[in-house]
Amino acid sequence: MARQTNRLGSGGRIDRSRPLRFRFNGRDYGGYEGDTLASALLANGVRLVNRSFKLHRPRGIIGCGAEEPNAILQLGSGAGTLPNQRATQVSLYDGLEARSTRGWPSLRFDASSVNDLFGRVFSAGFYYKTFMFPQRWWDYYEAFIRRSAGLGVAPDRPDPDRYEHRNAHCDVLVVGAGPAGLMAALAAARSGARVILADQQREPGGSLVGSDLPIGGRPADEWIAAVVDELREFDDVRVLTHSIVFGYHDHNFVTIAQECGGDMRERLWRVRARQVVLAQGAFERPLAFCNNDRPGVMLASAVSAYIKRYAVCPGRRAVVFTNNDSAYQCALDLAHAGATVGALVDSRGSVSSELTDRVEAVGIPVLHGHIVTDVRGRLSVGGVRVARWNGDTDARADNSIDIRCDLLAVSGGWNPAVHLHSQAGGAIAWDERRHCFVPAESRQANRSAGSGNGRWSLADCLRDGRDAGVAAARSCGFDAAEPELPVVEERDETPLQPLWRVPAARDPDSCPKQFLDFQNDTCVADVRLAVREGYRNVEHVKRYTALGFGTDQGKLGNITGMAVLAETLGAPVASVGTTTFRPPFTPVSFGVCAGEGVGELYDPVRKTAIHEWHVSAGAAFENVGQWHRPWYFPRAGEDLNSAVARECLATRRSIGILDASTLGKIDVQGRDAVAFLERIYPHKVGRMAVGRCAYGLMLGEDGMVMDDGVMTRLGDRRYYLTTTTGGAARVLAWLESWLQTEWPDLEVYLTSLTDQLSTISVAGPNSRRLLEKLGCSIDLSREQFPFMSMRQADLAGLPVQLFRVSFSGELAFEINVDSAHALALWQTLMDAGREFEITPYGTETMHVLRAEKGFVIVGQDTDGSVTPIDLGLERMLAKDKDFLGKRSLARPDCVREGRKQLVGLLSADGRTVLREGAQLIEEPGAAHPVPMIGHVTSSYMSDCLGHPIALALVAGGRSRHGETIHASLGAGSIATVTIVPPVFYDPQNERQHD
Amino acid sequence: MKYSALSLLRNALSHNRNWPEAWRSPKPKKKYDALVIGGGGHGLATAYYLARDHGMKDVAVLEKGWIGGGNTGRNTTIVRSNYLWTEAALLYEKSMQLWEGLSQDLNYNVMFSQRGVYNLGHTLQDMRDIERRVSANRLNGIDAEVVTAVQLKKNIPQLNTSPTSRYPILGASLQRRAGVARHDAVAWGFARAADRLGVDIIQQCEVTGIRRDGDGIIGVDTTRGAIDADRVGVVVAGHASVLASMAGIRLPIQSHPLQAFVSEPLKPVLDTVVMSNAVHGYISQSDKGELVIGAGIDAYNGYAQRGSFPTIEHAMQAIIELFPIFSRVRMLRMWGGIVDVAPDACPIISKTPVNGLYFNCGWGTGGFKATPGSGWVFAHTIANDEPHELNRAFDLQRFESGALIDEHGAAAVAH
User: Which residue from B minimizes the CA distance to A527?
Assistant: First the structure.
């Protein structure tokens, strides 16, 4: 195993007592608990970690957090593999395996790096201009493009881990636990507010972690620990670490992905906060000089973080290049860590002497008024070219000197992380003094604080955080006092010098590449090309050049890119603006967004109270809506067809029994129940006598059939409705929406009884005898209990509602019973029915029986374009009242001749069972497009009738009985069919009325 | 300058300094023969076909933001023509045929990739509907086939075809000629081609009023001044009803947010398009390697281009149901667009009660695939003041007559 050559002898927030082993590209390395994968790789002197997307340029680690574009690695293998992991955000664990996803045959010798030689051809948008000739070759071109693209590899097996969702409410959510966030949380917590503090790092502290800056007279680490300890004392304060706030949605709804460890991999917090304090900090930005992507060019703040947090010094001989004060600390940190700093190159002509003196005091030469123009080395930084510069961005950098180094720490200034503020709808503004975008007006209940608000000094951040925390708590009505601010050292600041594209020895179009988006290989020349070609809006530039489309989402280079765009256009950055900041703040797994709602819990199965009986009887099941319903009950050796044939014949001859519990059931009562239902149903609801049932059609506002069922009058002001199984929830919501939004003056109460009651249907000529045998408290005779009526009764000792309704065309009873007793009643019926050979049947037999009678199934025989008249049900439409859909039915198209109408079809050969869905045509062999006159909606073999039957919608069908047409069966084959009335069985309805 | 491999090479030699503008950015003139309001794919295509096929070159496209920035740049790029009803199927098939030569026609590679679209069936009723739609497609001369679950397992091995899943996949329809295209390129390609024929593309020009003289249109007011024209085509998707109210017309359009998202780029793992109605989700993989996923529509009305997170959660759950291997993949970006939905989920490409004012809207969740066809028939309608046979059925009158083209039953959640 390699030695950790870059690991410092002491310091850092790592646990040296817990060494870890890991593997990268097949080699074994060591690290410590507390490392990230990136810090461990750097500790081991690993420079080259991947290749870029388009040009296959060698790339190393540049940042230390979410802004890292290069170190995107594949972790693990098999089902547990994780593609596209950012090494800077991966906590090291023992046995971790990582590999680069590019570079063939190897990362060091990548054959595709030849692309780099032709970099000019692969300019922005080159693919829109080629791969067009000859047209038929596109498939090959595209296959090549697809193979070249992509980063990591998706797992090839389902995810072994779990995810969960948790909801939380709080008064103040503080995003980011750096100095500003900690002060905000402290201020809010002390006021008594419920606080959630979330931070993406493994420990709170933000930029202060590992810092030796004194705060309030003690080291920063101690101050952080004291604040966090105090926060944890409060009952209503929750501190979440390893938790990335990735989405800010409407109504202060905020989503947080928390890394958990174990087989519960991640947790999604769905937080509704009254106030939000955004204190995520700022991202350091790079500078666009030639070959600024060489492994060993790093952000200055990242270099400091590796030294202080992880005790890793990424180089031995360094140069620091900056246009602002912050990188001076990096130079000091490097020197402190034992590295030689060859030079601190500062573009600014003059800088406060205090700052310069401190750096020079440790022997670092400071070159004011200089810039780094180019980098030597290919697989690793070998040196930099430094030139004098007078501040003219159009100048050429001549007379450069060469400084040997293996590390270049760069700071181009800071970009406040305005992402969440912007996601929340807030405006952002260009700050002319600080040269960055800062949060402007908020649209929701949030405020920004700290460096995310453009405050650079520690003192300012602490104050800004405290003020935001106090203000947030006060907005929630808490009497918040202002906590005392800890004393910190304050220094004079020399303003940043705006510098984006760094002048090179040649002009920006022909000089070596100056990278803006490292992952997508977007360079300064690409932005300039986009402008030249007319893609001038910032969104066009982004889309044309792919600037910001990498998995760092532009955190590293986007603002620099915008500034280069502004420079190219000769316009102020403020007028160019930014592209939209969209969720997620950093990439989040599909798994954590889905949470528990996968597999069995994707959509929990609804089962009737009798379900277990069906299972033990060997039923095959069908999904109907959310329910599992018995489809058929096969006996040994039976398939669907033979089982259904047996079930149908048994029902027609003696008794079949069906679990109809899935029907939607709605109780309607109240002073205005009649008036309400008169508006809903097309038939005369008020005229029904108590105890009578009616077929109830429900129409949409467009007059089309929406749902159907049986409705029963239970009392003067009370009705009971059934709906289709799939339509139950929709119908209830539909009724409620009318009541609540259109007719609030009506006093009507709707209650779903779907689960409360179970429904058992017994159908067949012996069904009355069966109920009588069980002992029924009422007279079941035809005279006393006629068809389409309802009675309360005791059956087999159980209170039930009995309905004389029939969906099979047979004498039938539907029995509503409390679901607690349903299984017992079913069993009782089965036992008592044995002498009648009672036969359980499922949905398929139900469909056949009703089709033989010509009863439609809404959603199968109708499709949202079918009126009651099309179904031959105009008798149900009351003339002397208004009802939903009535006016639509008067539209010209609803009354025209030739509408598709419900008919029956018989195969001419008496054998062919038509395919459901088959289109109907008049002229087989006609040229495309062949006119279609309708389609088959239902089709079955009827063993009762001895031949196949079908229902269909046919243009003008009711006046075409007896005519012959054709059904298209696909692949050119057709069947000849005859149009007949849709009722095939007992057209006089004698059996169901019996 | 014609785009080709050769021109790429030649320009590379001069450090790409000599590429011309893809389109000009002219100042608006005072008057045009025709205006197209809306610089999305449909609007730009309309202008292109007006100039190319109808000799109307004095045309301006007015765009309030940047071209292609609305639903053209926000969709999931699926192109197919396997619609149920003949009226819709023939319109989308016209579009499909234009797609098939579009890159060459525009001399701009729109990366139309005919990798097939599967519409999954999860219930017996789904399979009836698939049978019905495939049967109709074939009679209309549109390629379509029914695929069994066994074939699906073979064609898309990553797909969860387990019979024990919550909603087992029973089969699918497949249109092999269907696929995806590069959405931005469609807008830019039409813009460049239209510009070369003389069309003015005017960005950052918001229409603030529609000027009428009695029953006829005389021009529009914009943030860049008044522009006269006696023919104005409006094709602004989610904001159709806003523009209509400027002209004193009420449209039967509801605007809803519709969201989509992409994953981080992955090596090729899915080489076709999979759509599911019952398990609300659809997915393909872009040439760049990102999984492109469409969520369901948000139920509420609104003009803000953002949706609700629960809708994203549901889409994730659906995708993991269909492709359990994607659970550990990460979402990179999510966004929303505003879709204009007509009561029958079909477009309105129509004359209006105002002479010279034409509307093209109501594409709902499925407008991208229609881009060339929509522009083609809309150009015909504007040029001739008469609909083409292919869009005659898609007039505004149908909401009064009731002659709807109800694609709700046939379409997936989103197209």
Answer: B16
Q: SS3 for A519?
A: coil
CATH class, domain A1-157, is: alpha beta
Measured CA to CA, the distance from residue A129 to residue A533 in angstroms comes to 12
Distance of alpha carbon B340 from alpha carbon B343, whole angstroms: 10
Q: How far is CA A899 from the centre of its chain?
A: 42
> What radius of gyration, in Å, describes the C-alpha atoms of chain A?
38
Determine what percent of chain A falls in helix, strand and coil, rounding each to the nearest 5: 25, 30, 45
User: Which range, of A102-116, A158-172, B371-385, averages the lowest pLDDT?
Assistant: A102-116
Identity of the residue in B8, B266, B401 whose CB atom sits nearest the CB atom of A150: B266
**Tens of pLDDT, residues A614-642:** 999 999 999 999 999 999 999 999 999 99
A534 Cβ partners below 8 Å, 6+ apart?
B21, B22, B23, B24, B25
**How many residues can be counted in chain B?**
415
How far is it, in rounded angstroms, from Cα B277 to Cα A264? Answer: 30
**What is the pTM (predicted TM-score) of this model?**
0.96
CB contact under 8 A, B320 and A891: no
Cβ within 8 Å of residue B387, ≥6 positions away: B349, B350, B351, B377, B380, B381, B394, B395
Question: Does residue A105 have a cis peptide bond before it, meaning omega lies within 30 degrees of 0?
Answer: yes
Chain B residue with the nearest C-alpha to that of A125: B185
Across chain A, mean pLDDT equals 96
Q: For chains A and B, count residue pairs whose Cβ atoms are closer than 8 Å.
A: 320
State which CATH number among 3.30.70.1400, 3.30.499.10, 1.10.150.450, 3.30.450.20 fits the domain covering A664-752: 3.30.70.1400
The ipTM value here is 0.96
For residues B149-161, b (16+ Cβ closer than 10 Å) or e, as one string? beebeeebebbbb
Check whether B392 has a pLDDT greater than 80: yes
User: Within 10 Å of residue A400's Cβ, how many Cβ atoms?
Assistant: 18
B positions 278-337 inside 8 Å of A (CB): 279, 285, 287-289, 306, 308-309, 312-314, 316-317, 319-321, 324-335
Report the candidate in B44, B25, B37, B26 with the shortest Cα–Cα distance to residue B64.
B37
**Residue A161, min C-alpha distance to chain B (Å):** 9
Tokens of A227: 């604040």
Q: Is A384 helix (H, G, I), strand (E, B) or coil?
A: strand
| All CATH 3.50.50.60 domain ranges in chain A, comma separated | 162-282+416-475, 286-412
> In terms of CATH architecture, what is A897-994?
Beta Barrel (2.40)
Q: Is it true that domain A162-282+416-475 has CATH number 3.50.50.60?
A: yes
Check whether B412 has a pLDDT greater than 50: no
Q: What share of chain B is helix, strand, coil (3-state, %, to 5)?
A: 35, 25, 45
Residue A866 CB contacts under 8 Å (≥ 6 apart), including other chains: A704, A705, A900, A902, A953
CATH topology of domain A513-590: Arc Repressor Mutant, subunit A (1.10.10)
**Chain B residue numbers touching A76 (CB-CB < 8 A):** none
Mean model confidence pLDDT for chain B: 95
Using the Cβ of A924 and the Cβ atoms of chain B, whether some distance falls under 8 Å is answered with no
Contact B289, B265 (CB under 8 A): yes
Q: For helices A353-361 and A327-336, give the axis angle rounded to 10 degrees.
A: 20
Question: Residues A524, A514: contact at Cβ < 8 Å?
Answer: yes
